Amino acid sequence: MHVIGTVGLPGSGKGEAATVAREDGIPVVTMGDVVRQETADRGLDPAKDHGTVAQALREENGPAAIAERSLPMIEDRLETHETVLVDGIRSDTEIDVFEERFGDAFTLVSIEAPFETRAERIDERGRDANEADGGEGLAARDERERGFGMDDAMDRADVVVENTDSLEAFHERIRAIVRNGTDGRKPAEADADS
What we know:
Elements: E1 2-7, H1 14-23, E2 28-30, H2 31-41, H3 46-61, H4 65-78, E3 83-89, H5 92-102, E4 106-112, H6 115-125, H7 138-148, H8 150-155, E5 159-162, H9 167-180, H10 187-193
Parallel strand pairs: 1-3, 1-4, 2-3, 4-5
Helix pairs in contact: 1-9, 2-3, 4-5
Organism: Natrinema versiforme
Protein name: Dephospho-CoA kinase
């Protein structure tokens, strides 16, 4: 059993990592889908109200609410697959939920890219409403997600992937992680042994 969680600011490449996992036959549980479903259940627009509902879920049910709602989906997929990728962890509280449930079988991957690169990617994918269309701008999204504890979560990563090279290079790096896993050491520990 291996559960790989991804963490990263909007536009960093978490969705691309999920695509690589799916292409390799690894099921993906997207934490954002939990929020999108709740947004739709509340009769709101997922393109515009995603952030508001994510915040509301955490306020109403505690900071681990979305991770806890994801656990049954992860466990269901682990019944038929050796590895599951969890897309979109936002806080160290959520990491605690997964580490408590899966122990050493949980690996956290931080996917990172500069603000300008992420902004271009978000514009290109056209999935989210921008500020002009009543949505949330990238700087505001970053601030909200950092408010959830994103920076602390990224600091706890077992593996850091800088997504600033070609898409092909990024896919190769993610493919190696989902196929081979990691030794579970923090990057600084691995570097010290090199």
